[in-house]
């Protein structure tokens, strides 16, 4: 007779399940809930064991309200995850977030993990050390939408006590693909560990944490999130051979290295 | 033979000209520009001497682009100025601001004064002292939209050097109409003086300033805006007789006095 | 027919009514309450109109509980107000304050103004600028007892919501009697005004404010008490003629001028 | 022929030797002194080799003066270590500490390690990060008495140069017995190491340090005590299996998880 | 029979007496000392009543040692006061200051007022608010030499207790001669008052204060110098008519308005 | 056939190559450049493979200009590295640094690593925690000259974008030779690693970093240099046996243990 280990949550909602990180997380979140409800505007294939598939446009309030039924906690990875025209950003990342929190409130969801981004602070310099007490400095329409999400979640905590952990994700890829990512690298395993901490810490209030592995170089100090208990296990150091020491300094006016946001500094609106 | 004194600007755009403060400002900004272009979704009556009247919905990008033609500087008082459903706020205050800055950038406008609000920080306590280095704490959908405007203007300054002064307006009324306003009072004359400072300081970068008179009690410290040169001339002290000393302390759980935002704490979304 | 102006409070308790400042305040607090209950261990003479006289040792818990019956708010000026052996300080200022707050809690008193002292921070240097966010640095057994009172009142606010304003009184005398007091002077009128602000501000939470007039020189920054609305009307400047400019610098090791506490630095326990 | 290794101190006084931590330390401090003088109000059994047993009520000044004869350094673990009525706390923890420092001063003792407590800051939130520069926020009569001890020791350092390390002890138990202790765990070995650092660092001035192991989650930042050289060797991580991930979030108004002090938030005085 | 009012000091040394501010101060410091010793490398004309004239090159150590004989306090306005080649700056402002403090130490002079400059912090932005706790950001060889003087005087205070007030002089001219000076204006009367405060405050330690009048616009916060008791009596506001409101914003890359140092940003070494 | 690995730089200049650390670095920097140009006033022996030897007095501007020809980056370890009379310090460390940066600018050198010193902050207490945002507190003429170098390099960065990393070197010796060095120890390997990080980080701007290994005890917090990616591999812990725990506390007025600078506190100018 097999013993069934009880999973902590009955139902986790993972939005953006068809996106880059959504795919990574799809299997990894399973140990935490009896059912993982997966949501996206794009196709997510067939539901596997322990999954529910709900295609949903976050800009559609009624759909989002329905999506939230029976959900305990939300991992909000939905929306646009790169620079785009404002109107598109607004539908997915602004109206989407507003709808999400309205639904969260109505459905009695207790906690949200919000995939914010380092682009909410991308206009700090690469020689600055940023912590969660400092004002945002978005580097793009995308970054502005992440600031918006942080504001909205702050409001829902102050007003209704709904807790959110905002993870300002660095570069969550299999490995760094440029030198900047040696600093911003956030391994999948560390991302999953940060999600675990965010879901299971007894109290998180409204916490902002930078999503990063234990890289040698960092721009971000997580001192105000120490209650989460997150300890990175990975480091970009193991990829050091990919970027050997080089004297090829960037040009003095190369904004992609002056500011933390990297290439986002060149995207989006152009001067006049 | 009369001498014509040259006015500093050729054309100022005043958005929200049909609103409460818009009406107050309509005449008062005239000394600063040959032409004051007035804009609103509501009717503004006939154009008077030195005025241009342009009815314009800020959510209509093409209209906003047209509105900005030939404009030197903008006083952005348009949009919704009280708590409202998010969808309405989004059109007027979020899409509206995005359109405005896109137009500002395209038209080569040099500086914007943005009517932000104390409701961007309304969830600080009435015993807190807030300055511009501290994170926002919006108290409403309206407050969140003002945080958004501050983010958007910060971006346009970091990216393109377009300067903005964000005035977090307190209570700009003829006189305080409740005890809270003894602290938040911002006389019309002081508002006009702050606009003058904001328009004529040689450099403002991206400045956040709390809009208040020199009241005895204050929650807001403008130390980071001292370069603007604003000195309040009024004080709520002259209205002290309206609110005599009283032992009628608010209830311990009265959020409208625990937090700075006052009655906004009761408006907007409700719990479940 | 005379009209009776309603006074804000029904009953104020003034402890330490026979002390130096107690005598000053005895008449001045009358406009704020129908009845002023005066308390001290020393004699206070006859009760005048609108007064109740209650001789009470603050170290006697039962007496303090009785003293608090029917009281709206407390001005706590009782206890020892100068350096003394610890045992005496403990009875009057430590047990006394503990009894006071226990009684305040039991009687449902809503607010206390606690006469703390600059000697709670007397070991800061006379070249330091101290504000309420900085740790205490007591200069005497007396100063330590004032730190204790601030801790106790903080606790009662955090635990029960009972509000206290801790006034770290500088030098409240008719006029400065030494050069140090040109910096620490706190006129009687300004003291009364600070009490008024402390009693009638809608919310005070747990506020620490330095009790000082608008002197030219100051060691204390009241930025975190700006919500109280206190504006000093006096300044020690009018006594400048008493202390003409002098080249008589203090000795390098004169602790009474190195540290803010002045002569308290020489009182109390001695080395071995 | 055996060589006798010289021990650093001639005599260490350990107060509270019959208490929970006192018993733990009794043997462990032996390597540091020729003689360990043990003191308590309760029985401590027979003196073993290298021990002196002195029964002593800390509220008895004459006894404490006698107790201090010939002592080099003090580990002050005496007094009440849990919430209790104020009068009892006052005798043991307030008068006791005052007597202790008077005796320390008279006996020429050079350094004290004072067992302060996390309950001196127990009213910070479990999402706050606290360091030694921040004001105390006691959560109990007990916590207030620890604030008092910190004030008293600060005074003796400022006045006489007597050095103290105040250790705000977290939860020093064999293992965490509730989830809160996963954050506040302070292993016996780490406690002993912190005592060692406190005793043997060349200069400690007046240092405040949070007593904690290297737990994953922490509320306390010891950046201002980095000169002590303390490095935790243990972590509560090894007990993680005792508290598996759980979705059982505490109630929104559960003060024992909102504030750092835990169950102390429910002890002590009650409302009215 | 005339009564002679005793002057506070026996002898003040004013270096740089032939310079712009030296000439202004020559008569104004007389009330403070029986004798004013005037020093410069340039001619100072005939000694008047109460004056001693000593021509002295500050780079000549023996001469500076002799100059200091019998001096109570020093007003150090000597050296080069504008941008110049480093070698010249080094002789006058670096070796000169080193010689001065060596002499001050040997002669037992008790206090120095050092004419530092806003150019020690000229690379802060014109939208920054600078106080004395922030690192220096010199804008020129001249500014670097002023940082050096601040370091040297800090050392002599820490090492020997010799007190110095470093006045970072703004623009001390009869009236503002460009718009920048509306912010940096420091009237002669206010300069003299600041000197008076610096000389006669009982303790100054090592104080850094920005030399400015009470102008509407300011970049500098003197909160850490509040113990000096300086209150400006003048303001640039009376010269507002000289710089009427203008829309002529500076170019975006005009460093003289981006940074506080103004035209110094264009002087000194050039790129390659 | 052997493959030649390309080295990152064509030519590194190492000044002070005959000094204590210069000798240590001579071989260790070779992997970073095709040619290492070695410079000193003292003899450096024969040039080995990949070396150029240039005897050069840094106070000789023409010589320094010539020295810089063809150099990519500079490791500036030249000058006097201990307390000395000011005139000598001035030639080597002040004029020397001024000449160096003038040459760096003229030669188009892109980055400098400047060997600053903990003696730039030696007058902080051994119980203080110092980071790069705090004002300097030099403990000697030598320390003042290091502050000067930091000012000069800051200027060249603000003015011309020439990047510098200022390493405030602790005690870089084979092993600690006194107890103080248990805190300040900076192993040769860690020094080399810090140089490597300083040379190869994409952007360093003007970074100040404390040069220390991962010692248990530290006075210095490198939080503002986290972008460099430096991780110490050594610790003084392995030398703990050299300094066994001891009760021999320093005297209360022993400045060499009160302040961080150690014995430098006794060198240099003497009182009168």
From TrEMBL, chains A, B, C, D, E, F:
A GO term for molecular function: oxidoreductase activity
Record keyword Transit peptide present: no
Domain NAD-dependent epimerase/dehydratase: 12-171
InterPro entries tied to this protein: Epimerase_deHydtase, NAD(P)-bd_dom_sf
A Pfam family it matches: Epimerase
Keywords of this entry: NAD, Oxidoreductase
Organism domain of life: Bacteria
Family (UniProt): Belongs to the NAD(P)-dependent epimerase/dehydratase family.
Official protein name in the record: NAD(P)-dependent oxidoreductase
Biological source species: Massilia cavernae
